[in-house]
Specification:
heterodimer, A: alpha+beta, B: 117 residues, alpha/beta, Udp-n-acetylmuramoylalanyl-d-glutamate--2,6- Diaminopimelate Ligase, Chain: A, domain 1, five-stranded mixed beta sheet, 5 strands, 40% helix, globular
Amino acid sequence: MAGEAVFRQEFPVKGGDFAKAGAVACRIKDLLKELGLDTPVVRRAAIASYEAEMNVIMYAWEGRVKLAVSPSEVRITVDDKGPGIPDVDLAMTEGYSTATAEMRELGFGAGMGLPNIRKNADAFRIDSRVGRGTHLEITIHANGHKS
Amino acid sequence: MITLKDVMTWVNGELLTPESPLGLECPKIFASDLMSDVLTSAEPGSFLLTGLANPHVISTCSVADVAAVVFVQGKRPDANVVEQARAKNLPLIATKLPMFEACSRIAALFGEKVHGR
């Protein structure tokens, strides 16, 4: 990452644990606020984290969210063990979803998760292997205001 | 300026978080049952109108900087959800009005107080 990370923390996420959904994103939001980052940056990082956390809960068996903050950027890395995504380009299409009825009843699974992560990130990388899992790297500039 | 109290009055709502500041400004309304839509499109500071009353609504609002929630159609979150909202200083209102009627009334409120119609 650009500049040395001055803050790092790691959070486990359990697949299927809907009761705790949002706990990691809310914690990340609180930490970034405490670190004094700008409100729009904190919001974008929280939204991207939440979408990623929900994806692990909805689709994977387990995962880890890693937060690294340097003076110039926020980096959120998510690694999950899960079924992976057979067609990443298709999964990045707004509205494409493989969510179950249960997920939709909770208000999620509209096929906006990955596109919304990309929208909130200044840089976004996704790498997925079928049968193994998915790796996300989300970078948000600490002093930038994305339109 | 439209406040939490104005919104509550115009939808015949009940404040589920009595300690919430009634003077809280309501700059915008976003109406949806899809939390995915809230995360993609709700502007910070908006009030959310929704028929969904589960804990994910509170987490979503917290993450997306939604300022208050109006539960429509007689939906009421359970005590745990209300407690979660109070911990996050998120005001909650419940109304028996259906979504369209609640939106219509608040649109009229904005028309009268903001646009002078």
